[in-house]
Specification:
The chain is α/β, with parallel strands linked by helices. Helix content is 65%, strand content 10%.
Length: 599
């Protein structure tokens, strides 16, 4: 792709990002937002008027002291000096007033955008999340929100004020000193802006490369820390450190290019500004020597040029940061534009549970379009009964659980609860009706109370303890020094597998759903722990419709019905003893597992 085309696309992306950001700043609700923005802009305008008028007072002080010209308002040198001090104080005062008035608007916009992004991430499909790296995703959001904060702070209160000040100063210089001053000032600004923009566009590409390397290094660090135990098991600390260092090496190279380009930019800007300053000051010095201008005029021109050059130097930094902020915000808005794969139909109604019968009607599904996982599966789970789905790894057992919770939609056929196609009901009501106990219960890095209470917002301590007793973990918790206030660690690592699983069961019991999905809930546990967990699961399933997805057949022998999957198709179904009598696939798997246990 040609560089001109890339530049055009980047400009278009920047304009699109700015259009997306403005509504967060100029919001109609709540009603106080727009009046505050207007008040802040008025304070900004007054501050600039005072700022531009201050050098005029300075000039008059010098002229009075040099006994040249007519004193402004008939004031003495001391009076003019006091007026000069008051003007400087007013400038700072109005600037601070502007910041104070605008601060609630900026913080509200930042909070609103962060919340919208957070909600959108949770609304995205399972397919999206399993293909994206969590560390990289969090980095995109973090940089994007910071970019919005920077844009709100500097575009409103740096770029716009600078343009306003340049316009005022140009008018004053032309009025007092002539057109050539305007030519030099505008020529300097034009060259400065062209140089800054050109070099900065080049630096943005370097910065994007640096961001990519930074994201990669951050992701490798997070991935390694999340797999801390695995790293230890395989003695791979040095290997992980080398892998991380390779990513940081790429970041180092990109960061050095960025640093070198910054030096070139800063020197070039200084050269242009200095040339313009010297040109205007030389022109004024000639006028003073010729008697056409006063010493005060020379001082005033110098003051105005300093007023211009300081923010112009700052403009270079601000522009670079704005370009980077637009890149970061663009990545975040692209994330917000990512459509959710699973959405509620227009007019979708809440799921109405009347027993909780589950029906899979000729269900077809594949994670990829050209490879089906389920090939015409039909299963009926009567209300209040327990149906186990078993089969070899890759047969499609866990896929059924994901379809039931509607992480994905079926490709063909239908999945119904009490006769209602789950694609026709709201996701919130569907999720509220189903409790899931997964193979590996992942806990928040918080207290045991918080993790059990997560099953239902606002649950009381008595309710939490009641479900903990039902899950047979209350006595264990009560014996801990901190009891229910015990921290479980990152992903629950301070608890054993059985303890985490019991917390997960208690959490699901607190949710009290009419439908229970047990997805390989005991396959990761030892035999003794499994026996205790199995009893807790049986109690959890009382009075509920239960689907048990299992690899270990001993855990499902008491199910009302067992469905055997093979390569995405139902090959057998029936009770445990009936399937053994058929001497088919189930009997083979049963005999195989019994032999493994005996061995």
């Amino acid at each position: 792709m040609a560089l001109d085309t890339i530049a055009q696309e980047e400009r278009a992306s920047g304009e699109r990002t700015l259009r997306r950001a403005v509504p967060y700043l100029w919001a109609a609700e709540p009603a106080w937002v727009r009046p505050r923005v207007v008040m802040a802009l008025l304070a900004l305008f007054v501050a600039k008027l005072v700022t531009v008028g201050t050098p005029v007072l300075y000039k008059n002080v010098v002229d009075v002291l040099a006994q040249e010209g007519v004193p402004l308002w008939g004031l003495t040198a001391v009076g003019l000096t006091v007026a000069y001090g008051v003007a400087r104080l007013m400038t700072v005062g109005f600037q601070q007033l502007r910041d104070m008035v605008f601060a609630p608007v900026g913080q509200r916009a930042l909070r609103r955008l962060a919340l919208e992004t957070f909600r959108h991430i949770h609304a995205l499909s399972m397919r999206y999340h399993i293909t994206r790296k969590t560390g990289g995703l969090s980095r995109v959001v973090e940089r994007g929100v910071k970019g919005v904060e920077f844009l709100l702070r500097f575009v409103v209160f740096s770029i716009f004020p600078l343009l306003l000040e340049l316009l005022m100063v140009s008018v004053i210089l032309t009025w007092f000193f002539g057109i050539w001053y305007l030519v030099i000032v505008f020529g300097t600004i034009a060259i400065y802006v062209w140089f800054t923009f050109t070099v900065t566009e080049w630096r943005v590409k370097l910065r994007r490369e640096m961001n990519t390397q930074d994201t990669d290094a951050n992701q490798k660090a997070i991935d390694s820390l999340l797999n801390f135990e695995t790293v230890k098991y395989f003695g791979a600390e040095a290997r992980e450190a080398d892998r991380y260092d390779q990513s940081m090496q790429g970041y180092e190279a990109a960061a050095l290019k960025t640093a070198y380009s910054l030096g070139f930019l800063n020197f070039g800007q200084s050269l242009i500004i200095t040339a313009g300053l010297v040109g205007v000051m030389a022109l004024t010095a000639i006028g003073v020597q010729a008697g056409k201008l006063t010493v005060g005029d020379f001082v005033m021109v110098n003051a105005y040029m300093i007023q211009i050059t300081i923010p112009l130097n700052f403009l270079g930094t601000v522009y670079r940061e704005i370009r980077q902020a637009l890149v970061d915000m663009g990545e975040m808005f692209n994330l917000l534009d990512q459509p959710a794969e699973i959405t509620d139909k227009p007019g979708a109604h809440d799921l109405r549970i009347n027993g909780g019968e589950i029906t899979l009607d000729d269900v077809h599904f594949g994670y990829e379009a050209d490879r089906d996982i389920l090939k015409g599966v039909s299963i009926t789970v009567p209300a209040g009964e327990t149906v186990a789905i078993v089969g070899a790894t890759g047969s499609g057992k866990s896929t059924i659980g994901r379809l039931l919770f509607r992480f994905y939609d079926v490709t063909d056929g239908a999945l119904r609860i009490d006769g209602q196609d789950i694609r026709d009901v709201t996701q919130d009501s569907l999720h509220a009706a189903i409790g899931v106990v997964p193979q590996d219960t992942v806990l928040f890095n918080d207290t045991i109370r918080y993790n059990i209470g997560y099953g239902r917002a606002g649950a009381t301590q008595d309710e939490i303890e009641e479900v903990a007793r039902a899950a047979k973990i209350h006595d264990f918790i009560a014996a801990l020094p901190d009891g229910y206030d015990t921290m479980v660690g990152e992903r629950g690592l301070k608890l054993s597998g059985g303890e985490k699983q019991r917390v997960g069961i208690a959490r699901t019991l607190l949710k009290n759903p009419p439908i229970l999905l047990l997805d390989e809930a005991t396959s990761a546990l030892d035999t003794d722990t499994e026996a205790g967990i199995k009893d807790a699961l049986n109690r959890a399933g009382e009075g509920r419709t239960v689907i048990t997805i299992a690899h270990r057949l001993s855990t499902v022998a008491e199910a009302d019905q067992i469905v055997v999957l093979e390569a995405g198709q139902v090959v057998e179904r029936g009770r445990h003893d009936e399937l053994l009598a058929q001497d088919g696939r189930y009997a083979y798997l049963w005999a195989l597992q019994r032999a493994e246990e005996a061995a």
